[in-house]
Amino acid sequence: MRDVMTSQSAPKTLYDRLWDAHTVVRGDAGKDLIYIDRHLLHEVSTPQSFELLRDNALKVRRPVTQLAVPDHAVPTSERGGAIKGELARKQVALLEANCAEFGIEYLALEGERQGIVHVISPEQGFTMPGISLVCGDSHTATHGAFGALAFGIGASECGTVMATQTLWQARNKNLRVHYAGQLQPHVTTKDMILALIGTIGAGGGIGHAIEFTGDAVRRASMEARMTLCNMGIEAGSRVALVAPDDTTFAWLKGRPRGPQGAMWDRAVEYWRTLRSDDDAVFDRTVEIDAAAIAPQVTFGTSPDQVMAVDGTVPAGPARALDYMGLEAGKPIAGIGIDYAFIGSCTNSRIEDLRAAAGVIRGRHVAEGVTAMVVPGSTVTKHQAEAEGLDKVFEAAGFAWHHAGCSLCVAMNGDFVPEGKRSISTSNRNFEGRQGAGARTHLASPAMVAAAAIAGRIVDVRKEFA
Amino acid sequence: MPGFTPFTAPAFVLDEDDVDTDIIFPARFLLHTERKGLGRFAFHDRPALLEAYEAAGKPPILLAGANFGCGSSREHAVWSLDGMGLTALFAPSFGEIFRGNCANNGMVAGVMAADTLAALQALAGKGANAGHALSIDLAAQTVTCAGQQFAFTVPDSDREMLLAGWNNTTRILALHGQDISAFEKAQRSAAPWLWTEETEA
């Protein structure tokens, strides 16, 4: 961390500052050797990484910087006892066995600390400002909400990180996304990020690290900032950042894996330097008027095929409209839905659950709609239960599940049947993402809750004001 | 793995943007924990595409649309493309994690300007005056087809690795073990809160 305590003369962006602080070797072929402070593991992306270690007779360099938890393949409708699906059971058991063999901490499925990697890591204070953090999962940019250099990697790279604590990586360009002004009621950071993806496209951020700035970002809670950064990859950016501030420090203080006592003060002193200089130069800037953002909903099969809920379905792409069973020129509001899913690393935190519960309180899910809530972590689940939110959801006809990825990636037994229409707080509306032939509309927790009650896509601002 | 050697072969055209890794490798097959034999799951939910690929004689080169391999980080996407017989991909852009995964598995993922790619597709794809084979020279970053040259790019460091067939992991340890130790020593003193769970070696 050659840049830690000194202020360099040339102005820097936050991203450049983090990059420089983690550069072990400046390469001459377009990549730098970057030090990795923390690595999160889950059952799906690491079996082959451990094989790489075994094939090359390698050890894990710093086991305490690694943390493993099962989330993708785990059933969420019941917990305790053996997992019924044979492949899922073996996959989870393999993660536990690999961690035991290589000395990595494994958070058991039945334990209090289990949940989606991107929810539990901040919760435990494993995520901190200023660190570099990777995971074999594309939504790792979530941790950029704390001002961490966090990005998703492949399974081979997970093996490289475990063995060397480094990765060769190309430095990205800097993209500043500035949200001036304040959001309307019922409009969230989910709508902010969907609006951005719609503006720059699903590949618009390729080669760029995003830094989110502006009033609407500063006012956002940590949960809301995590939602914002989570979907950077849906615009093509592996890295999405918010500079840490007092909101960040207050949220992190006292977390079990974070710095304690005098070490906390020392860390905060450094964390306060983690910002872009006022005169830092960004390669590109996108400005968005936060006050003008309406609740967003996707209409196609890529997250950039997104629109304001009060608009009409655009013309094309034809393949996407055909798959989604939608007609160009018709309002998106009023389209009937069969499934409503509240969960995923994008929107499964306590604030998301509170927002959804606020909409449905005293109401009931429309006939024919299957609605479910899957908290992002067991800690979140228990907190929600302590607040009585589970009762609100169950009284409204939502199923209340255990923590996991569930219907975001549909590989744990939860899925939407072919041809059925789902509205979902998750991050991807890809063909088949929630089940082969399933149709997915992405939206915020309040919008999904409102649609579950109405049985069709509605503008939460109008129907639940 | 062995280093890349130039080869000549026909190509298959997939003219569609934003083909994500869920299309390439549907998530429900991610429960498989092996790397080999995943070719049977590639494009599983796109039977028409597989039929066309088979009918074309399973060529080892794919000419794809923009943002190919976007979405999930699953390396299974690359393993399954390799398993179905592909060794080189060309597109106007790639999902970044996917592109890195390609390099780590000996798969060429070359970026080609959209108009260059369109011209190449016209020569390599189906139809009259098409179906020409492509000669791939990774070191020169060119594809030759029907006597014409088409430029592509693979990042320098990926190209070096692909040509030499390096093992990225053991190479880092061999060449930079001391650099890493020096970095760790400096970080331990500058940011000790990141090291509280480890005793000094």
UniProtKB/TrEMBL annotation, chain B:
Enzyme Commission identifier(s): 4.2.1.33
Domain Aconitase A/isopropylmalate dehydratase small subunit swivel: 49-108
Top-level taxon: Bacteria
GO MF annotation list: 3-isopropylmalate dehydratase activity
Coiled-coil ranges per UniProt: none
Residue ranges of the TM segments: none
Keyword ATP-binding: no
Keywords per UniProt: Amino-acid biosynthesis, Branched-chain amino acid biosynthesis, Leucine biosynthesis, Lyase
Keyword Transit peptide: no
Pathway it works in: Amino-acid biosynthesis; L-leucine biosynthesis; L-leucine from 3-methyl-2-oxobutanoate: step 2/4
Gene3D superfamilies, per the entry: Aconitase, domain 4
Pfam families in alphabetical order: Aconitase_C
GO biological process, one term: L-leucine biosynthetic process
Name of the top EC class for this enzyme: lyase
Catalysed reaction equations from the record: (2R,3S)-3-isopropylmalate = (2S)-2-isopropylmalate
Known partners and oligomeric status: Heterodimer of LeuC and LeuD.
Function in brief: Catalyzes the isomerization between 2-isopropylmalate and 3-isopropylmalate, via the formation of 2-isopropylmaleate.
PANTHER family attached to this UniProt entry: 3-ISOPROPYLMALATE DEHYDRATASE SMALL SUBUNIT (PTHR43345:SF5), 3-ISOPROPYLMALATE DEHYDRATASE SMALL SUBUNIT 2-RELATED-RELATED (PTHR43345)
Family: Belongs to the LeuD family. LeuD type 1 subfamily.
Protein name: 3-isopropylmalate dehydratase
Originating species: Novosphingobium guangzhouense
Lineage summary: Bacteria, Pseudomonadati, Pseudomonadota, Alphaproteobacteria, Sphingomonadales
